[in-house]
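Record type: ASSEMBLY
Status: queued
Input:
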Amino acid sequence: MSGATVPFLRRRPPHKPSPAAAASIAPALALRQPDPERTLRALPRVRGAGRLEPHAPMVVLDRRQSAIGSLRVVVDPAPEWTGVLWELADGRSGTSEDVPLDAGRRAYVSRGSAGTAAHYDIGLRHVRDVRRIVVGVPATSVISVELVGGTTIVCAPGSTALALYQHDGEIYLRADDDPYPSQGHLRAAYGI
Amino acid sequence: MPSTILVRGANTSVSKALPSVSNITVGFSWDVVHGNGPATEIVACAIVCGQDGKAVTDEHVVFFNQMLDPDEGVLYDESGNLPGGDAEQIEVSVGAIPSNVARIAFVLYVNPDLRRPGTFDSVRDAVVRVLDRSGDEFIRYPVDTKDKELGATSAMLAAELYRRGDEWKFRAVGQGYVGGVRDVARDFGFTL
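Status: finished
Output:
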């Protein structure tokens, strides 16, 4: 993996001290700053059944899980509102209302339903085009993820958003339990 | 040197045709018949197999999201600017393949997207070919996707590069898998 920073792990930009202050403290900070790549390597991988909990909200999928077939986000029961946000590597972004069809004439994310549940399918053939996709729901619904190889990942009850990040061909899934009353609040929090 | 045209089941010696060449490129091309819905999306991959015919490890499956095998002998070309009309290319450094590797299987699969993935029925003019370092084609296998049995499938073992004594040979296989890439994974012993 490259030594590039991984900005998506932090939702809000870090506080930046003034240049003078930064110069005075830079050597000390440089010794203590964590290596983001090392942090990513330490994240758990999942095969079979996984769970995202408040104390362990993030997992990483391997390169085959991240790129073969499609990834289905199931929301059960289907809530009164769902916020779906997407951002591509080329900088384009939007909501479920305006997903482009330029990847095999398939939407990067599209909605379906089965029984009481709604689901959102994310095609993985063009996963490297995606930077992040966020699905936000009221805390009354349970969010889970199904992969083509049979792996299922369930978010803890009370989760209000599932964010999918693509970095260097691997998908990182992160559950969030902050309350989002609407898609507008979700957009404001994630900056999409 | 004229290209050797292979039919299904036929083989030819790579080592005899190119005795001084250590790097070869396997190119894949195809046309997809477009309907009104999502396009059938084809993926090329190489599976580096041991003596037992199984992938050496999960990381020995080389495709667009896992571009180099651990032995660094098989490389997916991500340049996106391929000569000769190839849709995808995979390079093999024959000299770098360790002795425990008995063959390299070249597979084409339809991405198993949950939303109308399609089959090879909508694929025309699929070709697998072998090029030398200068880009000259010396083996060509036109895959007959109009064949009724093959057209109904969604993955195929298209060809293989295999050891026979001290030489490397290339065989046109054209064997379909009705269950798609899941069946390929089961057959070659890697996890999705």
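Annotation: Chain B has three helices and twelve strands.
Annotation: Residues 156 and 176 of chain B are 4 Å apart (CA to CA).
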